[in-house]
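A common beginner's mistake is to predict each chain separately and then try to dock the pieces by hand. The better habit, illustrated here, is to supply every component at once so that their relative placement is modeled jointly.
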Amino acid sequence: MIEMHKLKAIKPEIEQDFKRADLEIYGIDHFCPSYSGLIFLNCDEKDPKKLRPDHPDCAGRFSVFGHENCTGDEGHCHMTVPQRFDTRRSHPLTKAFKRVEITGALKKALKTRKTLQITVLVADEEGAVKPKKKKGASKRKALFSCEGLQVVTFA
Amino acid sequence: MAGSMRYRLRVASPTTDHMIKFSAAMRSIQGISDNRSYNYLAGIHGAPSHYCWHHQFSRRSDARAQVFLPWHRAYLHALDLALNDFSDDNVAQPWWDWTTTAGVPEAYGATQIDGRDNPLRRFRMNLELPNGSLRRNTRRRPGRNPFINLPTTTELESAIDDDDWSSFSDRMQGLHDDVHVWVGGDMGSTTAAAYDPIFYAHHAMVDRAWYLWQLKHGINNIPNALLDFVLEPFGVTVRDVLDTRTLGYEYADQVAPAEPVSPVLVG
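With all components supplied together, the output reads:
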């Protein structure tokens, strides 16, 4: 399966002379099969089949080592929020954090445009483009799901 | 020699001395079913025990309880000890250098070795779970994901050059995730990954990267807040696993044993 996530364009106020730039992805849900993701910046290509790691707008990659299925009783994989006096470690499905270095790609993307659009393309081990859903088919959970992304630059 | 330092060597041809000894010990622990068994140890990481440490945090520690590397070091050490309970050869697990190997190494892919089933190719999981039993051989689907290749030497060296513990740990976890996804099949699931014998060769490579990082940036180079953090269920703290020599092993390229001879008395 391949999924394409095109994020809303942002207007970052970034000085061009930064030394390093990272894309931080936080709150990643990993209760899913493992997958890899490619990050594209200001990429106008609409066909996911044409987007691969060697595409000129590809900024980097990340992988998510997924938990896949629940092997416990009912409620085993329901995330619980630690309460007062609970010193146990957090739930194994605690959301993940990923950092992808995008220094060169960000400089390139901001040379020609003032806006930044991030595209995240993810593939599981099948790697086939997800077929269009038939009417009435049950909704399949997306592989890639996170609470937020942010671009961080370092002077 | 039981009791002496163990040297973890590169994964090599299945007929090399250290691979023969390692495979024999793996076959032994795969053939039993009690709490010294491979099945039991594999169940510590994912199902049914789920002790593995990847993204969790703990109120007992600040510094994000970033113990991915220490936890897995303690885990591999537990396997080392179990293997040596069944061997007099001072067995050390090998490391799979995925930066220089084009795919799954022959020692882990061959169906048979010396006319017997290869214990490093797969393992028959034996699990009783609430939603049914899981009794089947582990599976791999290497190289199927179109977006991922095995990490390169440049990527690994860049991570080892990073002098910040937190950043190094994140980057190693990233490369580690790449390999899990690349191997695919059960290795692509935190629940089942540790049942596949190649899991340990992969993690020995990750642990070796931390060992090389420590040689470069300092053995004790880790936030103080993590030092007394207990790595469950092994009963050791992060402090206990910082120096591999105190655990009885190091990473080496080669070990050339010399045959003992009778002393020649001179004079």
